[in-house]
Structure formats: structure tokens, C-alpha cells
């Protein structure tokens, strides 16, 4: 039954893709691509609930899941959450707070990032929005990959748990172009190893790579930021992506490079409908 | 001097024409397992190797699966050229391995 449904969905996606005109508002092509992308993973992991994809390797591997359940008795990101709440509540020198910069005082909105910002014509990540908030209030920007930034991202993710990714591509050709460039990055082979994001996180997802299990691309950013044992500390989405670049033996881009922001935009849009589960933990 | 060099060249030529010299098999194994070189275990299982991986097929029965050595050379030189979506790196094209290192790795693979 499930297979029949998936097959029907695939057929529908193929039909949609074939019919989809290259509309400038981007409402048709990315949506058909998202459906096909998700159908691929739902068919590959029929036993994994949609809500669980943000848990990466723990969602797709039983042995890893048992280890994780033990780790989660004392989640290693708790310290970062504590630090993050203190920082979040602390006023800037001008008396304003982080909450003043965001919709709904910053609560339960992580699933709407990254966003396309019309004023800049570019994609802004969650961490980019936090730093813009600081700079607009006269504070220096934070290092975007770890430390206080990761703690603040953890706070914003925590209040958004359970809310499905809801990334929008507004009716602006620059937004669609950003999505397209993110997609191109995702599927392009890079680094001396000549592998793409897709090389590891599409077909081989769930497979074993020495001691690790490759996480599915679907929902991979829903668990961010993460405490990663390999780092021994917290890291934001861009720290993880930057690490991926190094692992392919590519020179990582600057953390706020437009290419990385576009990549996050594409990856998050592909995960629309997958609930936020961050902050998370990884081996 | 020139006589010993001549002898060396002739002997080396003779060795290369023979199937898989034991030293090359050992060198190939070292290159295959070296994380900075072949790093085959990152994606493949090799009998006796630690931490088995399952991204690619187990490296076993290679002679039966690839009786034609040239096929293995092509795969190790540039697998993405043969299969665009294969996760395998283009070891030769991206100069992760030299051609002579690839030949030694193939000598080792043929023992599996």
C-alpha cells in the first residue's frame, strides 16, 4: 500500500516536473522538486516517521538510536541552552533585547529561516539575523559557527520544536535564483575528493561510513545547532556545512558566504514540512 | 656502473611484466588503507579491515567481478566519468593517487 502510494507520488511529481513552466515567482518548480525530494526519502526509509527525520543518523539506524537514547538522559547541549537563555535575556548597551528584533519576540520562528530579504536581495540565515540584530543595536557581530551564537540558535530552535520547516520563496526572481544556486551547490562535486552534498546525503544516506551513519539530507538542518562529540562543542548549521567542505578536501568558504546561505536556503526549503527538533546531538 | 644500471633496468622491466609482485601487493594494501590515499575503508568493507563501511560494495571477488584490469584502472582513475552519480572520488583525475599507486592498489584488490 505504502509502495503504491509512493509510486503514485513519484508519478505525480514526474508529471508536475514535466508540466511545470519556469515561472518567475518560483512557486511551481521548487515545490515539485521538494515533493520529489521528499518522496525519495519517504520511499527509502518507509519505517521513519516524518517527525523523526531531523534526528539524522538516530532516525535511520537502530543501533545508533539506542546510543542516542542513553546520551539524551543528559543532553550535551543543555549547558549551551543555559548560556543561551542568559545571553538572550541580557539587554544590549542601548537597552534593547534580541527579542525586539524578531517576529513573536523570537519565539517559535526558527522554522522560517533562512529567509530571502528583499532589501539586500539575498538570503539571510538564522545566525545572520541574530548578527544583524546585534549590529543594528550597536553590538559587534558574533563568530557565527560556535560559542554564544550556537547557544542563541539553540534557544531559538528549542522554542520552535515541533514546528515544521516553513521556508518561503517570495515572488522575486532573485529569490528563485538564490534557490537555484543553492540547488546547484548541493549537487555539484567539489573538493579534491570530488564529491557533492548529494554524494553522501542522498542515495547513501543511512549507510555506514566507518563508525558513522550518513544522515539523510531531508531534515538535516532541522536538528541544528548540534553538540557534536567529534568537535567536543556546539556548532551551528554553517559549522557543520563548513566541516563537510573540509571533509571533501575543499577549502571552506567564509561562514557567511552567499553560496553557503543559498545552500541552506535550498536544503531548508527541501525540508519544508519536517518539524524542527534542534538543538540536537551528533557523534 | 653503466652495466649495473643496465642490469637494474632489465630486471625492473622483467618484474613489471610479471603478475603482481608481492612488494607491490603490500604497497597497494598500504595505499588502499591509508586515510590520506585510497582510504577504501571509508566506503567499502574489506575482509579483515576494521569498522566496515557500506556506502560501496564489499571489496571481494574482484578478479571474478573485474576480469579486465583496464576496467579497474578506469574506476580508480575517474569513476564519476563512468557514473555521474557515483559517490566514489575521481582518484586519478583529482591526483589523490598517481597512476603507479593505482596500479599497486589494483594488485592488492586482485588478491581479495
Descriptive account of the structure:
The complex is a heterodimer of chains A (283) and B (112). Chain A has 283 residues and is mainly α. Chain A folds into 2 domains: 1-44; 55-283, Cytochrome c-like domain (Cytochrome Bc1 Complex, Chain D, domain 2, Orthogonal Bundle). Chain A has 11 helices and 7 strands. In chain A, the strands form 3 sheets. In chain A, strands 6-5-7 form a 3-stranded mixed β-sheet. Chain A has a two-stranded antiparallel ribbon with strand order 1-2. In chain A, a hairpin with a 4-residue loop joins strand 5 and strand 6. Chain A starts with a helix and ends with a strand. The model of chain A is unreliable at 1-26 (pLDDT under 50). By secondary structure, chain B is mainly alpha-helical. Chain B has one domain (23-109): Orthogonal Bundle (Cytochrome Bc1 Complex, Chain D, domain 2). Chain B contains 5 helices and no strands. Chain B has helices spanning 2-17, 22-33, 62-65, 69-82, 99-109. The termini of chain B are far apart. Mean pLDDT of chain B is 87; it is low at 9-17. The A-B interface holds A 189, 192-195, 198-200, 203-204, 207-211, 214 and B 41-43, 51-55, 80, 85, 87, 89-90, 93-96.
CATH class of the largest domain in chain A: Mainly Alpha
Share in β-strands of chain A: 5-15%
- Major sheet size, sense and barrel closure of chain B: none
Summarize the amount of helix of chain B as a percent range. Answer: 40-55%
Shape of chain B: globular
Biggest β-sheet description of chain A:
3 strands, mixed
Q: Mind telling me which CATH architecture of chain B this is?
A: Orthogonal Bundle
**Total number of β-strand segments of chain A?**
7
C-alpha geometry of chain A = globular
Total beta strands of chain B: 0
Distance between the termini of chain A: 35 Å
According to CATH, the homologous superfamily of chain B is Cytochrome c-like domain
CATH-level-4 superfamily name of the largest domain in chain A: Cytochrome c-like domain
**First-residue to last-residue Cα separation of chain B:** 41 Å
Q: And the CATH topology of the largest domain in chain A?
A: Cytochrome Bc1 Complex, Chain D, domain 2
From the alpha-carbon coordinates, what is the Rg of chain B to the nearest angstrom? Answer: 16 Å
CATH topology of chain B: Cytochrome Bc1 Complex, Chain D, domain 2
Helix content of chain A: 40-55%
Largest interface, counted by CB within 8 Å of the partner chain's CB: A-B, 16 and 17 residues
Amino acid at each position: 500500500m505504502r509502495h503504491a502510494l509512493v509510486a503514485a507520488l513519484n508519478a505525480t511529481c514526474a508529471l508536475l516536473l514535466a508540466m511545470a513552466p519556469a515561472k518567475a515567482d518560483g512557486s511551481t518548480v521548487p515545490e515539485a522538486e521538494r515533493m520529489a525530494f521528499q518522496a525519495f526519502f519517504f520511499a527509502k526509509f518507509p519505517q521513519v516517521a516524518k517527525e523523526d527525520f531531523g534526528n539524522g543518523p538516530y532516525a535511520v539506524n537502530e543501533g545508533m538510536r539506542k546510543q542516542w537514547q542513553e546520551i539524551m538522559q543528559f543532553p550535551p547541549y543543555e549547558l549551551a541552552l543555559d548560556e543561551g537563555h542568559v545571553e538572550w535575556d541580557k539587554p544590549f548597551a542601548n537597552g534593547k533585547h534580541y527579542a525586539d528584533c524578531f517576529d513573536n519576540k523570537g519565539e517559535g520562528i526558527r522554522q522560517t529561516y533562512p529567509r530571502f530579504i528583499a532589501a539586500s536581495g539575498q538570503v539571510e540565515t538564522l545566525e545572520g539575523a541574530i548578527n544583524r540584530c546585534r549590529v543594528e543595536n550597536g553590538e559587534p557581530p558574533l563568530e557565527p559557527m560556535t560559542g554564544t551564537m550556537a547557544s542563541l540558535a539553540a534557544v531559538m530552535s528549542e522554542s520552535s520544536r515541533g514546528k515544521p520547516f516553513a521556508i518561503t520563496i517570495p515572488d522575486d526572481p532573485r529569490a528563485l535564483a538564490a534557490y537555484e544556486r543553492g540547488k546547484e551547490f548541493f549537487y555539484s562535486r567539489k573538493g579534491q575528493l570530488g564529491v557533492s552534498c548529494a554524494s553522501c546525503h542522498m542515495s547513501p544516506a543511512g549507510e555506514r561510513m566507518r563508525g558513522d551513519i550518513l544522515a539523510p539530507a531531508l531534515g538535516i538542518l532541522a536538528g541544528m545547532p548540534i553538540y557534536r562529540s567529534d568537535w567536543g562543542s556546539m556548532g551551528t548549521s554553517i559549522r557543520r556545512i563548513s566541516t563537510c567542505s573540509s571533509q571533501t578536501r575543499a577549502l571552506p568558504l567564509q561562514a557567511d558566504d552567499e553560496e553557503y546561505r543559498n545552500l541552506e536556503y535550498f536544503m531548508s526549503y527541501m525540508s519544508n514540512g519536517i518539524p524542527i527538533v534542534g538543538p540536537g546531538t551528533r557523534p | 656502473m653503466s652495466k649495473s644500471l643496465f642490469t637494474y633496468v632489465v630486471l625492473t622491466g622483467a618484474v613489471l611484466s610479471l603478475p603482481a609482485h608481492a612488494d607491490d601487493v603490500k604497497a597497494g594494501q598500504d595505499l588502499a588503507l591509508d586515510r590520506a590515499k585510497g582510504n577504501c575503508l571509508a566506503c567499502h568493507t574489506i575482509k579483515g579491515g576494521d569498522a566496515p563501511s557500506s556506502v560501496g560494495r564489499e571489496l571481494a571477488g574482484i578478479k571474478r567481478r573485474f576480469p579486465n584490469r583496464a576496467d579497474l584502472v578506469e574506476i580508480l582513475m575517474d569513476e564519476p566519468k563512468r557514473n555521474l552519480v557515483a559517490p566514489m572520488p575521481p582518484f586519478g583525475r583529482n591526483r589523490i593517487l598517481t597512476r603507479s599507486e593505482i596500479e599497486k592498489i589494483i594488485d592488492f584488490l586482485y588478491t581479495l
